# Entry
Amino acid sequence: MTETQIAANIRRVQERMAEAASRAGRNPETITLVAVTKTVEPARIAEAYAAGIRDFGENYMQEALRKIGTPPLDGPDVRWHFIGHLQRNKVKEAVGRFALVESVDSVALAQEIGRRAEQAGRVVEILLEVNLASAATRYGFAPEAVAAAAAECALLAGVRMRGLMGMAPYAPDPEAARPYFRQLHALFLQLPPATQQILSMGMSGDFEVAIEEGATQIRIGSALFGPRSP
Ligand SMILES: *Cc1c(COP(=O)(O)O)cnc(C)c1O
# Structure
């Protein structure tokens, strides 16, 4: 069978991940590739699944729910990550469906996730989203608010705090992202040790720099599936 375009893209990204890890003296097996599938149809996501991807990220709840229910993406081996802005009235739908909510941007949201998770007899893994640059996102904790929020979230029942997520502002030169990633890594190292597990940073345009700066997870859309139509 000839390799699909998506499979070839995955292989190329994995090679670039390994090269970036090796430049930084890191083991590439400690870095997770999350395929970001917003606007991508289930048949094309299934190609990524066939090529070995098991972590998928979605930004919008309704779109995500449709895909999560489509085989083979509904299997117990698939880990869905919620990476968009999560409204509190959508938390109920996230519990039990997403292995990891990466975009927790307030303690109130973490509390709501914990409350719904407890009701469902589950524990939901979360990352705190950090607003590194208001040019990249409207959401997330200010860097100076992260330590206090992490301490509060670490005590909540129903959630397991596993680390931080952030985005650098878009720039044509990936080097422009380095100071933002360095700052996020420094914040990560100040978390309670038990919550220093996942540092989610790096997208198609800047993931190699993110890996050099300590990312344990990268979120890649267009480099795998091609450009998104607006
Ligand atoms: C869309 C998106 C990505 C992936 O972006 P690409 O540049 O296509 O790789 C990563 N993270 C978040 C939060 C996103 O919304």
User: Anything to note?
Assistant: The mean pLDDT is 96. Residues 5-225 form a domain with the TIM Barrel fold (CATH 3.20.20.10). The two ends are 32 Å apart (CA to CA).
